[in-house]
Amino acid sequence: MDTTHRVIVGDSRDLSAVADESVELVVTSPPYPMIELWDDLFVDHDADIADALEAGDGREAFDAMHAQLDRVWDELSRVLTDGGIACINVGDATRTVDGSFRVYPNHARILEAFEERGFDPLPDILWRKPANSAAKFMGSGMIPPNAYVTLEHEYVLIFRKGGESRSFEAGADCRYEAAYFWEERNRWFTDVWTDVRGQLQSLESDGDDLRDRSAAYPLEIPYRLISMYSTYGDTVLDPFWGTGTTSLAAMCAGRESIGCELESEFVSLFDERIADVPELSRSVARTRLESHRSFVDDREDAGSDLEYRAEHYDMPVMTKMERDISLYAVEGVESTADGYRLEHARFESNGSGSLG
């Protein structure tokens, strides 16, 4: 199985290089309005944002920043197929503007924007970020009433384009080979993720703090979402590509991908890391198989037999829908004019690995 992975250097408010209804899944994490890290980016798109912030009008700045993201959501509505899914990872912002501290609810504003474009909201996910400090308060410290809760979670907002789910032929291989294990389903399809591991990327750049501007999320987040909401043969789009975490996840998951990124330096750094993808994909596959073996051992130790067996792996599974599960690893990487072409093979291993 071969997959292709395109990287477009440009502005995601114009995705004209991506055809209408050619993408099955979007997984992305946009710049978060009202987080100071992203002020310059938003101001570059709309100088009135700087005026609003200087005037102490946080609400006007918030709305103007989201107006820029709205142009990207317009493009996603165009390129997603009917029944396609958009997963938007975003955090709310806390900020003091003109002496007043408040929360700016980015997730609520994006939810509203997608509904206005005809998307159906699906149940969302909260994932808890690793805390950088033992302090759990902001404001007045140990005395009431002027302390504030610390934000330690982000949202994965999930939307479906149109009113109906995608349809497939009965028994379609692309779905059944892309199945997840029963225990993965139970862990992934809960609305709170507390087990997501930390940052994978090691990003270095001479004379420029790209790490601060990358805001990359852990690999496990896009990998899970891609496994949950796409099949083999699908294309995954990330309009805020950054360090390419979504593309890495798509490569490991055996899906195709398209990324759009303003900064060409990010793409250059990704070129230096692509050689690690074959081992990364094997590590991801090993982790899933070893985790399932451990689950089987625990069930058998408890006296419970599993009725079905995986066709491609020497192990039992809980349901008949899992029998054709096929995990793929990258065997070869070839650079192309606009990205990469990867060769995948079904993975089998008795080793262990680590995702993230």
UniProtKB/TrEMBL annotation:
<dbReference type="GO" id="GO:0009307">
    <property type="term" value="P:DNA restriction-modification system"/>
</dbReference>
<keyword id="KW-0680">Restriction system</keyword>
<comment type="similarity">
    <text>Belongs to the N(4)/N(6)-methyltransferase family. N(4) subfamily.</text>
</comment>
<keyword id="KW-0489">Methyltransferase</keyword>
<dbReference type="InterPro" id="IPR001091">
    <property type="entry name" value="RM_Methyltransferase"/>
</dbReference>
<keyword id="KW-0949">S-adenosyl-L-methionine</keyword>
<keyword id="KW-0238">DNA-binding</keyword>
<dbReference type="InterPro" id="IPR029063">
    <property type="entry name" value="SAM-dependent_MTases_sf"/>
</dbReference>
<keyword id="KW-0808">Transferase</keyword>
<feature type="domain" description="DNA methylase N-4/N-6">
    <location>
        <begin position="23"/>
        <end position="270"/>
    </location>
</feature>
<dbReference type="GO" id="GO:0015667">
    <property type="term" value="F:site-specific DNA-methyltransferase (cytosine-N4-specific) activity"/>
</dbReference>
<dbReference type="Pfam" id="PF01555">
    <property type="entry name" value="N6_N4_Mtase"/>
</dbReference>
<dbReference type="GO" id="GO:0008170">
    <property type="term" value="F:N-methyltransferase activity"/>
</dbReference>
<dbReference type="GO" id="GO:0003677">
    <property type="term" value="F:DNA binding"/>
</dbReference>
<dbReference type="InterPro" id="IPR017985">
    <property type="entry name" value="MeTrfase_CN4_CS"/>
</dbReference>
<protein>
    <recommendedName>
        <fullName>Type II methyltransferase</fullName>
        <ecNumber>2.1.1.113</ecNumber>
    </recommendedName>
</protein>
<dbReference type="InterPro" id="IPR002941">
    <property type="entry name" value="DNA_methylase_N4/N6"/>
</dbReference>
<dbReference type="GO" id="GO:0032259">
    <property type="term" value="P:methylation"/>
</dbReference>
